[in-house]
Write a structure and sequence with these properties.
two-stranded antiparallel sheet; 427 residues; Arc Repressor Mutant, subunit A; DNA replication origin binding; DNA replication; Rossmann fold; alpha/beta; ATPase_AAA_core; 7 strands; 3 domains
Length: 427
Protein backbone atom coordinates (compact mmCIF):
# COMPACT_ATOMS: atom_id res chain seq x y z
CA UNK A 1 0.00 0.00 0.00
CA UNK A 2 2.83 2.37 0.86
CA UNK A 3 4.40 1.87 -2.57
CA UNK A 4 1.09 2.53 -4.34
CA UNK A 5 0.65 5.81 -2.46
CA UNK A 6 4.20 6.83 -3.33
CA UNK A 7 3.60 6.08 -7.01
CA UNK A 8 0.40 8.12 -6.93
CA UNK A 9 2.24 11.08 -5.39
CA UNK A 10 4.97 10.85 -8.03
CA UNK A 11 2.35 10.74 -10.76
CA UNK A 12 0.71 13.88 -9.41
CA UNK A 13 4.04 15.66 -9.13
CA UNK A 14 5.10 14.66 -12.64
CA UNK A 15 5.37 17.49 -15.10
CA UNK A 16 2.28 17.38 -17.39
CA UNK A 17 4.52 18.37 -20.32
CA UNK A 18 5.51 14.71 -20.75
CA UNK A 19 1.85 13.80 -21.19
CA UNK A 20 1.45 16.67 -23.66
CA UNK A 21 4.48 15.55 -25.65
CA UNK A 22 3.06 12.02 -25.97
CA UNK A 23 -0.37 13.40 -26.90
CA UNK A 24 0.97 15.66 -29.66
CA UNK A 25 3.23 12.94 -31.08
CA UNK A 26 0.38 10.44 -31.18
CA UNK A 27 -1.81 12.96 -33.02
CA UNK A 28 0.85 13.65 -35.62
CA UNK A 29 1.23 9.90 -36.29
CA UNK A 30 -2.51 9.28 -36.56
CA UNK A 31 -3.88 9.87 -40.10
CA UNK A 32 -7.46 9.45 -38.82
CA UNK A 33 -7.04 12.35 -36.40
CA UNK A 34 -5.28 14.50 -39.03
CA UNK A 35 -7.84 14.13 -41.83
CA UNK A 36 -10.93 13.91 -39.63
CA UNK A 37 -10.76 17.70 -39.47
CA UNK A 38 -11.84 18.00 -43.12
CA UNK A 39 -14.48 15.26 -43.10
CA UNK A 40 -17.40 17.59 -42.28
CA UNK A 41 -17.10 19.73 -45.40
CA UNK A 42 -19.31 18.54 -48.31
CA UNK A 43 -16.59 19.75 -50.70
CA UNK A 44 -13.85 17.68 -49.11
CA UNK A 45 -12.39 14.62 -50.80
CA UNK A 46 -13.57 12.60 -47.81
CA UNK A 47 -17.22 13.55 -48.42
CA UNK A 48 -17.03 13.00 -52.18
CA UNK A 49 -15.35 9.61 -51.85
CA UNK A 50 -17.71 8.49 -49.11
CA UNK A 51 -20.71 9.42 -51.26
CA UNK A 52 -19.42 7.40 -54.24
CA UNK A 53 -18.64 4.25 -52.21
CA UNK A 54 -21.78 4.45 -50.04
CA UNK A 55 -23.98 4.85 -53.14
CA UNK A 56 -22.67 1.51 -54.34
CA UNK A 57 -23.83 -0.01 -51.03
CA UNK A 58 -27.20 1.71 -50.71
CA UNK A 59 -28.20 1.74 -54.39
CA UNK A 60 -26.59 -1.58 -55.42
CA UNK A 61 -24.62 0.16 -58.17
CA UNK A 62 -21.13 -0.23 -59.64
CA UNK A 63 -18.62 2.61 -59.52
CA UNK A 64 -14.98 3.32 -60.33
CA UNK A 65 -12.81 6.26 -59.34
CA UNK A 66 -9.20 7.42 -59.35
CA UNK A 67 -7.50 9.19 -56.43
CA UNK A 68 -4.65 11.27 -57.84
CA UNK A 69 -2.03 13.41 -56.15
CA UNK A 70 1.65 13.54 -55.15
CA UNK A 71 3.05 11.09 -52.62
CA UNK A 72 2.27 12.19 -49.08
CA UNK A 73 -0.84 14.17 -50.03
CA UNK A 74 -3.20 11.91 -48.03
CA UNK A 75 -4.85 9.75 -50.71
CA UNK A 76 -4.54 6.44 -48.86
CA UNK A 77 -5.17 8.08 -45.46
CA UNK A 78 -8.49 9.58 -46.59
CA UNK A 79 -9.48 6.33 -48.32
CA UNK A 80 -8.76 4.30 -45.17
CA UNK A 81 -10.76 6.82 -43.11
CA UNK A 82 -13.76 6.50 -45.46
CA UNK A 83 -13.61 2.69 -45.60
CA UNK A 84 -13.23 2.47 -41.83
CA UNK A 85 -16.32 4.63 -41.29
CA UNK A 86 -18.37 2.67 -43.85
CA UNK A 87 -17.32 -0.68 -42.36
CA UNK A 88 -18.64 0.55 -39.01
CA UNK A 89 -21.88 1.79 -40.54
CA UNK A 90 -22.45 -1.19 -42.87
CA UNK A 91 -20.42 -4.03 -41.28
CA UNK A 92 -22.14 -6.78 -43.30
CA UNK A 93 -22.60 -4.91 -46.57
CA UNK A 94 -19.04 -4.21 -47.68
CA UNK A 95 -15.77 -6.12 -48.04
CA UNK A 96 -12.43 -4.61 -49.06
CA UNK A 97 -9.83 -6.18 -51.33
CA UNK A 98 -6.47 -4.38 -51.45
CA UNK A 99 -3.80 -4.79 -54.12
CA UNK A 100 -0.56 -2.92 -54.69
CA UNK A 101 0.96 -2.46 -58.13
CA UNK A 102 4.44 -2.90 -56.71
CA UNK A 103 3.52 -6.43 -55.58
CA UNK A 104 0.70 -7.59 -57.85
CA UNK A 105 1.20 -5.86 -61.18
CA UNK A 106 1.25 -9.10 -63.20
CA UNK A 107 -2.15 -10.72 -63.86
CA UNK A 108 -1.34 -14.11 -62.33
CA UNK A 109 -0.29 -12.77 -58.92
CA UNK A 110 -3.12 -10.18 -58.92
CA UNK A 111 -5.92 -12.73 -59.50
CA UNK A 112 -4.33 -15.10 -57.00
CA UNK A 113 -4.22 -12.39 -54.31
CA UNK A 114 -7.84 -11.40 -55.03
CA UNK A 115 -8.92 -15.02 -54.67
CA UNK A 116 -6.96 -15.38 -51.43
CA UNK A 117 -8.47 -12.27 -49.85
CA UNK A 118 -12.00 -13.23 -50.95
CA UNK A 119 -11.54 -16.67 -49.38
CA UNK A 120 -10.33 -15.14 -46.11
CA UNK A 121 -13.21 -12.63 -46.12
CA UNK A 122 -15.89 -15.26 -46.70
CA UNK A 123 -14.21 -18.09 -44.74
CA UNK A 124 -13.62 -20.30 -47.78
CA UNK A 125 -10.75 -22.67 -48.46
CA UNK A 126 -8.09 -21.08 -50.67
CA UNK A 127 -6.19 -23.30 -53.08
CA UNK A 128 -2.62 -22.26 -53.78
CA UNK A 129 -2.59 -24.65 -56.74
CA UNK A 130 -5.53 -22.97 -58.52
CA UNK A 131 -4.73 -21.84 -62.06
CA UNK A 132 -5.00 -18.34 -63.47
CA UNK A 133 -8.34 -19.16 -65.14
CA UNK A 134 -9.67 -20.76 -61.94
CA UNK A 135 -8.90 -17.62 -59.91
CA UNK A 136 -10.36 -15.38 -62.61
CA UNK A 137 -13.61 -17.36 -62.75
CA UNK A 138 -13.74 -17.49 -58.94
CA UNK A 139 -13.55 -13.66 -58.76
CA UNK A 140 -16.38 -13.29 -61.29
CA UNK A 141 -18.50 -15.85 -59.41
CA UNK A 142 -17.90 -14.07 -56.09
CA UNK A 143 -18.88 -10.72 -57.63
CA UNK A 144 -22.15 -12.30 -58.75
CA UNK A 145 -22.85 -13.96 -55.40
CA UNK A 146 -22.02 -10.81 -53.39
CA UNK A 147 -24.23 -8.77 -55.71
CA UNK A 148 -27.16 -11.13 -55.13
CA UNK A 149 -26.52 -10.83 -51.38
CA UNK A 150 -26.44 -7.00 -51.70
CA UNK A 151 -22.84 -6.87 -50.54
CA UNK A 152 -20.38 -4.44 -52.16
CA UNK A 153 -16.80 -5.45 -52.89
CA UNK A 154 -14.38 -2.50 -52.87
CA UNK A 155 -11.24 -3.17 -54.90
CA UNK A 156 -8.42 -0.81 -53.87
CA UNK A 157 -5.63 -0.72 -56.46
CA UNK A 158 -2.69 1.22 -54.99
CA UNK A 159 0.01 2.30 -57.49
CA UNK A 160 -2.76 2.09 -60.09
CA UNK A 161 -0.51 3.17 -62.95
CA UNK A 162 1.48 -0.05 -62.59
CA UNK A 163 -1.67 -2.08 -63.22
CA UNK A 164 -2.05 -0.11 -66.45
CA UNK A 165 1.19 -1.60 -67.81
CA UNK A 166 1.10 -4.57 -70.18
CA UNK A 167 -2.18 -6.10 -71.34
CA UNK A 168 -4.29 -4.67 -68.50
CA UNK A 169 -6.20 -7.97 -68.23
CA UNK A 170 -6.95 -7.48 -64.53
CA UNK A 171 -8.48 -4.04 -65.08
CA UNK A 172 -10.49 -5.26 -68.07
CA UNK A 173 -11.78 -8.34 -66.20
CA UNK A 174 -12.79 -6.29 -63.16
CA UNK A 175 -14.52 -3.51 -65.07
CA UNK A 176 -16.12 -5.92 -67.55
CA UNK A 177 -17.54 -8.07 -64.72
CA UNK A 178 -19.02 -4.90 -63.22
CA UNK A 179 -21.13 -4.44 -66.36
CA UNK A 180 -23.27 -7.31 -65.10
CA UNK A 181 -26.61 -6.40 -63.55
CA UNK A 182 -25.99 -8.71 -60.61
CA UNK A 183 -22.55 -7.38 -59.59
CA UNK A 184 -22.11 -4.75 -56.88
CA UNK A 185 -18.58 -3.39 -56.70
CA UNK A 186 -16.42 -0.29 -56.69
CA UNK A 187 -12.88 -0.05 -58.10
CA UNK A 188 -10.70 2.61 -56.47
CA UNK A 189 -7.39 3.38 -58.14
CA UNK A 190 -4.69 5.30 -56.23
CA UNK A 191 -1.79 6.87 -58.11
CA UNK A 192 0.71 9.70 -57.93
CA UNK A 193 0.63 9.96 -61.74
CA UNK A 194 -1.83 12.65 -62.75
CA UNK A 195 -2.19 11.10 -66.22
CA UNK A 196 -2.94 7.59 -64.91
CA UNK A 197 -6.28 7.39 -66.75
CA UNK A 198 -4.53 8.18 -70.04
CA UNK A 199 -2.53 4.95 -69.69
CA UNK A 200 -5.67 2.83 -70.04
CA UNK A 201 -6.37 0.89 -73.23
CA UNK A 202 -9.45 1.86 -75.21
CA UNK A 203 -11.42 -1.23 -74.13
CA UNK A 204 -10.61 -0.53 -70.45
CA UNK A 205 -11.20 3.23 -70.69
CA UNK A 206 -14.65 2.69 -72.18
CA UNK A 207 -15.65 0.74 -69.05
CA UNK A 208 -14.12 3.22 -66.59
CA UNK A 209 -16.28 5.98 -65.08
CA UNK A 210 -13.59 8.69 -65.48
CA UNK A 211 -14.28 10.01 -61.98
CA UNK A 212 -11.19 11.56 -60.44
CA UNK A 213 -10.44 13.12 -57.07
CA UNK A 214 -7.39 15.37 -56.97
CA UNK A 215 -5.45 15.66 -53.72
CA UNK A 216 -3.91 19.12 -53.94
CA UNK A 217 -1.56 20.84 -51.46
CA UNK A 218 -3.50 22.36 -48.54
CA UNK A 219 -4.37 26.04 -48.71
CA UNK A 220 -3.02 28.52 -46.16
CA UNK A 221 -6.42 28.54 -44.45
CA UNK A 222 -6.39 24.74 -44.22
CA UNK A 223 -2.85 24.79 -42.79
CA UNK A 224 -3.90 27.27 -40.10
CA UNK A 225 -6.88 25.10 -39.14
CA UNK A 226 -4.71 21.98 -39.19
CA UNK A 227 -2.04 23.51 -36.94
CA UNK A 228 -4.63 24.51 -34.36
CA UNK A 229 -6.34 21.10 -34.63
CA UNK A 230 -3.08 19.21 -34.11
CA UNK A 231 -1.28 21.32 -31.52
CA UNK A 232 -3.96 22.87 -29.29
CA UNK A 233 -4.68 21.04 -26.03
CA UNK A 234 -8.18 19.97 -24.90
CA UNK A 235 -9.43 21.93 -21.91
CA UNK A 236 -11.64 19.10 -20.63
CA UNK A 237 -8.97 16.42 -20.22
CA UNK A 238 -6.83 15.05 -17.40
CA UNK A 239 -4.37 17.91 -17.95
CA UNK A 240 -4.51 20.82 -15.48
CA UNK A 241 -6.98 23.34 -16.88
CA UNK A 242 -4.78 26.35 -16.11
CA UNK A 243 -1.76 24.75 -17.81
CA UNK A 244 -3.75 23.74 -20.92
CA UNK A 245 -5.23 27.24 -21.24
CA UNK A 246 -1.80 28.86 -20.90
CA UNK A 247 -0.33 26.38 -23.41
CA UNK A 248 -3.04 27.25 -25.94
CA UNK A 249 -2.56 30.97 -25.38
CA UNK A 250 1.19 30.78 -26.01
CA UNK A 251 0.60 28.51 -29.04
CA UNK A 252 -1.89 30.99 -30.52
CA UNK A 253 0.65 33.81 -30.13
CA UNK A 254 3.36 31.70 -31.80
CA UNK A 255 1.13 30.71 -34.74
CA UNK A 256 0.21 34.36 -35.29
CA UNK A 257 3.87 35.48 -35.26
CA UNK A 258 5.10 36.63 -38.67
CA UNK A 259 8.41 34.82 -38.04
CA UNK A 260 6.55 31.53 -37.57
CA UNK A 261 4.62 32.02 -40.81
CA UNK A 262 7.92 32.65 -42.58
CA UNK A 263 9.32 29.39 -41.18
CA UNK A 264 6.28 27.43 -42.38
CA UNK A 265 6.39 29.09 -45.81
CA UNK A 266 10.11 28.36 -46.15
CA UNK A 267 9.60 24.69 -45.39
CA UNK A 268 6.46 24.17 -47.46
CA UNK A 269 7.93 25.93 -50.50
CA UNK A 270 10.01 22.80 -51.12
CA UNK A 271 7.93 20.16 -49.26
CA UNK A 272 4.29 21.04 -49.86
CA UNK A 273 2.36 17.94 -48.78
CA UNK A 274 0.50 17.05 -45.60
CA UNK A 275 2.96 14.22 -44.93
CA UNK A 276 5.93 16.60 -45.03
CA UNK A 277 4.11 19.04 -42.76
CA UNK A 278 3.52 16.25 -40.22
CA UNK A 279 7.23 15.33 -40.25
CA UNK A 280 8.16 18.95 -39.64
CA UNK A 281 5.69 19.36 -36.78
CA UNK A 282 6.80 16.08 -35.18
CA UNK A 283 10.38 17.34 -35.23
CA UNK A 284 9.35 20.69 -33.71
CA UNK A 285 7.26 19.06 -30.97
CA UNK A 286 10.17 16.77 -30.10
CA UNK A 287 12.27 19.86 -29.33
CA UNK A 288 9.72 21.14 -26.79
CA UNK A 289 11.32 22.10 -23.48
CA UNK A 290 9.86 19.76 -20.87
CA UNK A 291 10.85 22.11 -18.04
CA UNK A 292 8.73 25.00 -19.31
CA UNK A 293 6.15 22.68 -20.91
CA UNK A 294 5.41 25.04 -23.81
CA UNK A 295 6.08 25.12 -27.54
CA UNK A 296 8.18 28.09 -28.60
CA UNK A 297 9.22 29.73 -31.84
CA UNK A 298 12.73 28.37 -31.29
CA UNK A 299 11.40 24.80 -31.46
CA UNK A 300 10.16 25.43 -35.01
CA UNK A 301 13.38 27.22 -35.99
CA UNK A 302 15.47 24.29 -34.77
CA UNK A 303 13.22 21.82 -36.57
CA UNK A 304 13.57 23.74 -39.82
CA UNK A 305 17.37 23.81 -39.65
CA UNK A 306 17.63 20.12 -38.71
CA UNK A 307 15.09 18.72 -41.16
CA UNK A 308 16.26 20.63 -44.21
CA UNK A 309 18.97 18.66 -45.94
CA UNK A 310 21.92 20.83 -46.94
CA UNK A 311 24.25 18.37 -48.70
CA UNK A 312 26.60 21.05 -50.00
CA UNK A 313 27.21 22.47 -46.54
CA UNK A 314 27.62 18.95 -45.20
CA UNK A 315 30.32 18.39 -47.84
CA UNK A 316 32.11 21.54 -46.70
CA UNK A 317 32.15 20.29 -43.10
CA UNK A 318 33.96 17.17 -44.33
CA UNK A 319 36.65 19.09 -46.21
CA UNK A 320 40.25 19.46 -45.11
CA UNK A 321 41.73 22.89 -44.31
CA UNK A 322 43.66 22.82 -47.61
CA UNK A 323 40.43 22.20 -49.50
CA UNK A 324 38.75 25.09 -47.70
CA UNK A 325 41.56 27.44 -48.74
CA UNK A 326 41.16 26.37 -52.37
CA UNK A 327 37.38 26.96 -52.23
CA UNK A 328 37.88 30.43 -50.75
CA UNK A 329 40.47 31.23 -53.43
CA UNK A 330 38.03 30.24 -56.17
CA UNK A 331 35.33 32.38 -54.60
CA UNK A 332 37.71 35.36 -54.46
CA UNK A 333 38.54 34.86 -58.14
CA UNK A 334 34.84 34.97 -58.97
CA UNK A 335 34.44 38.19 -56.97
CA UNK A 336 37.23 39.62 -59.10
CA UNK A 337 35.06 38.69 -62.11
CA UNK A 338 37.50 36.01 -63.18
CA UNK A 339 34.82 33.53 -64.19
CA UNK A 340 37.23 31.12 -65.84
CA UNK A 341 39.97 29.72 -63.62
CA UNK A 342 41.98 26.53 -63.22
CA UNK A 343 44.24 24.93 -60.65
CA UNK A 344 47.18 27.05 -61.79
CA UNK A 345 45.31 30.36 -61.31
CA UNK A 346 43.86 29.15 -57.99
CA UNK A 347 47.40 28.42 -56.73
CA UNK A 348 48.47 31.90 -57.83
CA UNK A 349 45.65 33.39 -55.74
CA UNK A 350 46.54 31.12 -52.82
CA UNK A 351 50.19 32.29 -52.89
CA UNK A 352 49.02 35.90 -53.09
CA UNK A 353 46.87 35.44 -49.97
CA UNK A 354 49.76 33.87 -48.08
CA UNK A 355 52.12 36.68 -49.05
CA UNK A 356 49.61 39.43 -48.20
CA UNK A 357 48.19 38.07 -44.94
CA UNK A 358 51.11 35.93 -43.78
CA UNK A 359 48.82 32.97 -43.08
CA UNK A 360 50.16 30.23 -40.85
CA UNK A 361 48.56 27.57 -43.05
CA UNK A 362 50.59 27.05 -46.19
CA UNK A 363 50.48 23.79 -48.11
CA UNK A 364 52.78 22.54 -50.83
CA UNK A 365 51.65 22.38 -54.42
CA UNK A 366 51.37 18.57 -54.34
CA UNK A 367 49.13 18.67 -51.26
CA UNK A 368 46.93 21.31 -52.88
CA UNK A 369 46.71 19.27 -56.08
CA UNK A 370 45.44 16.25 -54.13
CA UNK A 371 42.94 18.53 -52.34
CA UNK A 372 41.85 19.92 -55.73
CA UNK A 373 41.28 16.40 -57.07
CA UNK A 374 39.29 15.52 -53.95
CA UNK A 375 37.00 18.53 -54.51
CA UNK A 376 36.38 17.27 -58.05
CA UNK A 377 35.55 13.78 -56.77
CA UNK A 378 33.15 15.20 -54.19
CA UNK A 379 31.54 17.31 -56.96
CA UNK A 380 31.98 20.54 -55.03
CA UNK A 381 33.70 21.83 -58.16
CA UNK A 382 33.61 20.53 -61.73
CA UNK A 383 35.35 21.00 -65.04
CA UNK A 384 33.60 23.44 -67.37
CA UNK A 385 34.87 21.71 -70.52
CA UNK A 386 33.97 18.20 -71.63
CA UNK A 387 36.60 17.72 -74.31
CA UNK A 388 39.80 18.35 -72.38
CA UNK A 389 40.23 14.98 -70.73
CA UNK A 390 43.68 14.62 -72.31
CA UNK A 391 44.73 18.06 -71.07
CA UNK A 392 46.71 18.45 -67.84
CA UNK A 393 44.48 18.89 -64.78
CA UNK A 394 46.46 22.04 -63.87
CA UNK A 395 45.06 24.01 -66.79
CA UNK A 396 41.54 22.66 -67.28
CA UNK A 397 38.99 25.37 -66.29
CA UNK A 398 36.75 24.57 -63.33
CA UNK A 399 33.64 26.02 -61.73
CA UNK A 400 32.36 26.22 -58.14
CA UNK A 401 29.12 24.33 -57.55
CA UNK A 402 28.25 26.14 -54.32
CA UNK A 403 27.14 29.72 -53.80
CA UNK A 404 28.94 32.32 -51.76
CA UNK A 405 26.25 32.13 -49.04
CA UNK A 406 26.52 28.33 -48.82
CA UNK A 407 30.31 28.52 -48.59
CA UNK A 408 30.14 31.21 -45.90
CA UNK A 409 27.59 29.24 -43.83
CA UNK A 410 29.64 26.07 -44.31
CA UNK A 411 32.78 27.79 -43.02
CA UNK A 412 30.94 29.18 -39.98
CA UNK A 413 29.64 25.71 -39.07
CA UNK A 414 33.07 24.08 -39.62
CA UNK A 415 34.35 22.88 -36.24
CA UNK A 416 37.97 24.04 -36.60
CA UNK A 417 37.78 26.57 -39.43
CA UNK A 418 40.71 29.05 -39.32
CA UNK A 419 39.47 32.57 -38.53
CA UNK A 420 41.53 33.80 -41.49
CA UNK A 421 39.22 32.04 -43.95
CA UNK A 422 36.16 33.89 -42.67
CA UNK A 423 38.10 37.17 -42.94
CA UNK A 424 39.07 36.30 -46.52
CA UNK A 425 35.42 35.72 -47.40
CA UNK A 426 34.57 39.21 -46.13
CA UNK A 427 37.34 40.93 -48.09
Amino acid sequence: MGRDKEKEKQRQKRNPSEEVLNLLRSRLCNPNFIFRLFSDSPESNYSKLRFIISSSITEASNNSILLLGPRGSGKVAVLDLVLGDLLQEYPDAISVIKLNGLLHNDDISAFKEIARQLCVEHQLLFSKMASFDDNSQFMIAMLRECGLAHKTIAFVLDEFDLFAQGKQKLLYSLLDAMQSVTSQAVVIGVSCRMDADQLLEKRVRSRFSHRKLLFLPPSKEDIERLLDHLLALPLDSSLPHKYAAEFNGKLKATLADARFKQIIDTYLNSNFTVNHLMRFLFQAVSYMDLESGFLSLENFKTALSSIQRQPKMECIRDCSIAELYLLVCMRRLEVKEQNSYNFHSVMTEYKSIHDSFKTSDYYSRNVCLRAFEHLLQREIIRFTDTRGSSQSIDFRPVKLLISSAELHEGLKSYHSCPAMLLKLMDH
